[in-house]
């Protein structure tokens, strides 16, 4: 048996209205301990109002080697951005 | 708190290790780093970069953890409720910083247990400064003022280090450290303005911590084998001597302002350089402390090993309980 | 001594002595995450203590502030319960002590929020949130250790066995407290016992542990008759202000 407590990723919501943001990691033997460790480690200075804890082993990540095929095809789809379209100056509210 | 990169004096970075790397990927990597782009955990990186980072980040983490001991030595004896709370919060912060840094190193494929094992077996280094004893309450002031001051000087540039998780940990650490140096100076200032006994304590602490603090920046540039490589890879951003000079320049006036004397007869303002000239550092002592011959090196390591060994049954129990609970949940 | 001074000292000394002991773990606990947790609990307790001691000093009106009360009283004048001065021992002893104390303190602070004394009520209002967390932390560790390995189980049973004798003192009432209860200032701890028993029983059941058998209770802390441990704790804690009296730190 691996004797190290599993690693968890910590996501902190700074205040309501904002998304949870990755803050770091903690080691904890179980979920409640993970919440407490995250609270004691990452919210000592009022950094948060809510926590998400995810076992690090459960994170599925894209492969940087595939970043080209995953993300670069979006680069030439400029028509998805509002600035692609030219509208005369005198037309308002659009 | 902080570390400088402490490798053995004679070990040169291995050119052979770099020769095995795929030249196309290596060139792309070097270009990204040179353009100040960040490297993230799953990105391709040269093995030497990975190894250097693991060594530097884990040394930094170990320094935080061992660094809890000299100050922890005074938590139970802090002279007022306010000082007690501040010191406990500060030592707790050091623990938090160690935790962030271990986590950053773990993204490079090592585990905290492995790093701790390397520390306990003496293979991993930590900042030499923590192998000096804290003899009086004034040492708590001197550590905050000088040691944390030197640490901040080192750490601020590391917020822009090339490895993303390390840089992010450093941003958080620098934000939290900002009170550490101020509380240390405040303690020293209070003592320096106090009774003759208190003033003596403050001066004695400065006398003992000044030179070790200057050593915290690591060996001189002409004797720092990995520096050039580390700077090219943006693992370091400034040289040891540059940072050390800046530390002297800002700290000397702080000592003078509260009537304390920096223990260096050669210290002199150099009008032409607009900097202080200062005396020769005893590198003999530095390397002895790196080798583990610091005044309380044994005690520090014994304390860490004891805490880890005494806690083994607790860590095992928590895992055993989690396994039982998961087993019961699965059976339901 | 005014009853409110006495009462505030009891509350303040509980926090001070326990906070002092928890701070010893910082840098020496089984896991970095536990260092941080115990330091947080210690900081909460030291903070609460500062408020209670300030109230004691202000009410007394003889110019003693929280620091003078913390650092310039000897054993006979300390008013903490015997439970909190029991040494840290191993992690199980520390958890057993925290488990019994924090569950009591949570119930106490919840009631103290309704005190007719505005300062006590305000301190309790802030403290109760902190203490809920302490109790949660301790209860969970009771379960992990009780239902963990054979070794952890033996250790937590031993911890509980030792600490159990100091429980009754937490619920005892003397003339000082009686008077404050009548005035609506102090909490009547006897009224907390049933709920405390139920909470402890529930946590112990989850931890697959049994409550230790009733035994002759130890008491005396509230009247200044402590165990031998407190003198050593104070010797260390008070060393600087006593060695260099009358100076600022």
Short description:
The complex is a heterotrimer of chains A (about 90), B (about 325) and C (about 250). Chain A is α+β, with helices and mostly antiparallel strands.
Account of the protein in words:
- The complex is a heterotrimer of chains A (94), B (332) and C (249).
- With 94 residues, chain A is α+β, with helices and mostly antiparallel strands.
- Chain A has helices at residues 31-42, 67-71; strands at residues 7-13, 21-27, 50-55.
- The longest helix of chain A has 12 residues, at 31-42.
- The mean pLDDT of chain A is 92.
- Chain B has 13 helices and 2 strands.
- In chain B, strands 1-2 form a two-stranded antiparallel ribbon.
- In chain B, 65% of the residues lie in helices and 2% in strands.
- Chain B is mostly helical.
- With 249 residues, chain C is mainly alpha-helical.
- Chain C has one domain (3-215, 222-243): Ferritin, CATH 1.20.1260.
- Chain C is built from 12 helices and no strands.
- The chains are: A alpha+beta (94), B mainly alpha (332), C mainly alpha (249).
- The interface between B and C is large, with 48 and 48 residues.
**Overall mean confidence score, pLDDT of chain C:** 97
Summarize the amount of helix of chain A as a percent range.
10-25%
Q: Which CATH-level-2 architecture of chain C?
A: Up-down Bundle
State the low-pLDDT regions of chain A, or none.
none
What is the total domain count of chain C? 1
**The CATH H-level homologous superfamily of the domain at 1-59 in chain A:** Phenylacetic acid degradation B
Separation of the first and last Cα atoms of chain C: 29 Å
How much helical structure, as a percent, in the residues of chain C? 55-70%
Tally the helices of chain C: what do you get? 12
Count of distinct strands of chain A: 3
Helices and strands in order:
The complex is a heterotrimer of chains A (94), B (332) and C (249).
Chain A: E1 7-13, E2 21-27, H1 31-42, E3 50-55, H2 67-71
Antiparallel strand pairs in A: 1-2, 1-3
Chain B: H1 15-19, H2 23-34, H3 47-72, H4 81-106, H5 112-120, H6 138-158, H7 164-192, H8 196-215, H9 227-232, H10 240-257, E1 268-270, E2 275-277, H11 283-293, H12 297-310, H13 312-331
Chain C: H1 3-23, H2 32-60, H3 66-71, H4 82-85, H5 91-112, H6 118-146, H7 150-163, H8 167-170, H9 175-182, H10 193-206, H11 228-237, H12 239-243
Helix pairs in contact in C: 1-2, 1-9, 2-6, 5-6, 5-7, 5-10, 6-7
């Amino acid at each position: 048996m691996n004797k190290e407590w599993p690693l968890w990723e910590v996501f902190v919501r700074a205040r309501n209205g904002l998304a949870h943001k990755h803050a770091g990691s903690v080691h904890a033997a179980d979920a409640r301990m993970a919440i407490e460790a995250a609270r004691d480690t990452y919210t000592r200075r009022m950094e948060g109002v809510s926590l998400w804890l995810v076992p690090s082993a459960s994170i599925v990540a894209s492969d940087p080697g595939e970043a080209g095929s995953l993300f670069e095809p979006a680069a030439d789809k400029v028509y998805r951005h509002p600035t692609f379209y030219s509208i005369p100056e005198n037309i308002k509210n659009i | 708190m902080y570390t400088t990169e402490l490798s053995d004096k004679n070990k040169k970075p291995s050119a052979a290790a770099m020769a095995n790397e795929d030249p196309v990927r290596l060139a792309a990597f070097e270009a990204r780093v040179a353009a100040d782009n960040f490297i993230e955990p799953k990105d391709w990186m040269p093995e030497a970069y990975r190894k250097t980072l693991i060594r530097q980040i884990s040394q930094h983490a170990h320094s935080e953890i061992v660094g809890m001991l000299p100050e922890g030595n005074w938590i139970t004896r802090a002279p007022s409720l306010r000082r007690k709370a501040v010191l406990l919060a500060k030592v707790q912060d050091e623990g938090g910083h160690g935790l962030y840094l271990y986590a950053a190193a773990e993204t490079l494929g090592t585990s905290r247990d492995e790093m701790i094992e390397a520390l306990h077996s003496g293979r991993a280094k930590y900042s030499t400064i923590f192998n000096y004893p804290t003899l009086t309450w004034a040492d708590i002031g001197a550590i905050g003022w000088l040691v944390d001051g030197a640490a901040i000087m080192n750490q601020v540039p590391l917020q822009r280090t090339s490895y993303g998780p390390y840089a992010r940990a450093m941003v958080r650490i620098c934000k939290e450290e900002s009170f550490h140096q101020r509380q240390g100076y405040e303690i020293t200032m209070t003592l320096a303005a106090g009774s003759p006994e208190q003033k003596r304590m403050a001066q004695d602490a400065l006398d003992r911590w000044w030179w070790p603090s200057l050593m915290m920046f690591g060996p001189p540039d002409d004797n720092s084998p990995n520096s050039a490589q580390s700077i090219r890879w943006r693992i370091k951003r400034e040289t040891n001597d540059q940072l050390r000079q800046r530390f002297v320049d800002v700290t000397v006036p702080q000592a003078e302002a509260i009537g304390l004397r920096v223990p260096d007869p050669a210290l002199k303002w150099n009008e032409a350089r607009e900097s202080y000239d200062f005396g020769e550092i005893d590198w003999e002592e530095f390397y002895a402390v790196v080798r583990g011959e610091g005044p309380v090196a044994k005690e520090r390591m014994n304390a860490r090993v004891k805490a880890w060994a005494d806690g083994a049954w607790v860590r095992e129990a928590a895992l055993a309980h989690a396994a039982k609970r998961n087993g019961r949940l699965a059976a339901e | 001594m005014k009853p409110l001074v006495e009462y505030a000292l009891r509350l303040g000394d509980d926090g001070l002595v326990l906070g002092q002991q928890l701070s010893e773990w910082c840098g020496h606990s089984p896991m970095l995450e536990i260092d941080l947790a115990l330091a947080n609990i210690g900081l909460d307790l030291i903070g609460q203590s500062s408020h209670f001691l300030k109230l004691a000093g202000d009410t007394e009106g003889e110019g003693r502030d929280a620091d003078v009360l913390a650092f310039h009283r000897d054993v006979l004048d300390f008013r903490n319960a015997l439970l909190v001065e029991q040494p840290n021992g191993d992690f199980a002893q520390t958890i057993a002590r925290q488990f019994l104390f924090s569950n009591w303190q949570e119930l106490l602070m919840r009631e103290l929020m309704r005190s007719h004394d505005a300062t006590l009520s305000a301190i309790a209002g802030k403290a109760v949130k902190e203490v809920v967390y302490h109790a949660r932390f301790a209860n969970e560790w009771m379960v992990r250790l009780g239902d963990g390995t054979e070794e952890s189980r033996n250790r937590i049973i031993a911890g509980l066995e030792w600490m159990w004798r100091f429980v009754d003192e937490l619920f005892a009432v003397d003339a000082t407290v009686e008077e404050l209860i009548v005035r609506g200032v102090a909490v009547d701890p006897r009224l907390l016992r049933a709920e405390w028993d139920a909470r402890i029983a529930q946590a112990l059941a989850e931890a697959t542990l049994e409550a230790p058998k009733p035994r002759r209770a130890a008491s005396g802390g509230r009247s200044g008759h402590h165990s031998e441990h407190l003198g050593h704790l104070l010797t260390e804690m008070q060393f600087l202000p006593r060695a260099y009296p009358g100076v600022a730190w």
